[in-house]
Amino acid sequence: MWGWMLSGGMVEGVPRGSFVFRVRMGDYEVEISGHRREVLETIKELPSLMVDVYKAFEGSKPKTTATLTVKTSPAKEEVAVEKYPRILRVDSCDEAVLRILESDWGKWRPRTVGELKKALKANKLGYPGRTLAGVLLGLVRKRKVRRWKTDAGCVYILAEEDAA
After folding, report:
1. Which residues on adjacent β-strands are paired with residue 32?
2. What pairs with residue 31 in β-bridges?
3. pTM higher than the cut 0.85
4. 43, 21 in Cβ contact below 8 A?
């Protein structure tokens, strides 16, 4: 029904010195972070908290499902290129990735490496997959981009600046 992961190490996008505890129930995940002592005190209350969390998630599930079938005509190659953002000339892969993620397309939802690679290709920027992976890792480490794992693989989105 649920699994958990306890991490005292570095998690992307979480400041050093923070303690993170994640609980997954089916498709939903709850993360508790803060100082180690506070998180551990909260974990002691986990059985009662999980009941509340489960009830909260149950309320958000759809009561009924519907199937919608939409007929579409085969997409032309030009149409596929149009859905990716256009970016101006860039000097590096880092800059290209940041410009793509800053666009409405990049802000709309987190993007996979494959989607980012296609967006770069649509802009006639053919960076190899290993280069793109290295650039994304560097941007995560610099906290310019956030990354997390999904069933589709890792996804990336522009990091929000802290309002200090």
Report:
1. 21
2. 22
3. no
4. yes
Residues in CB range of 93: below 8 A, 6 or more apart: 120, 125, 127, 131, 132, 135
Provide block-wise average pLDDT over 10 residues at a time, the chain (164 residues).
43 63 70 82 79 70 60 55 80 93 90 92 90 94 92 88 58
Output the DSSP codes for 86-145.
Answer: P----SSHHHHHHHHHHSHHHHHS-EEHHHHHHHHHHTT----HHHHHHHHHHHHHTTSE
For the stretch 99-105, contacts whose Cβ atoms lie closer than 8 Å and that sit 24 or more positions apart, written own/partner, are 101/145, 101/156, 101/157, 101/158, 102/158
Task: Give the number of other CB atoms < 10 A from CB of residue 29.
Answer: 15
Spatial contact of 158 and 98, defined as CB atoms under 8 Å apart: yes
Paired tokens of 156: 């990336």
Distance of CA 159 to the CA centre of its chain: 10
Domains annotated for the chain, with CATH where assigned, are: 2-60 (no CATH), 77-158 (1.10.10.10)
**pLDDT for the residue 157:** 92
Cα-Cα end-to-end distance for the chain: 38
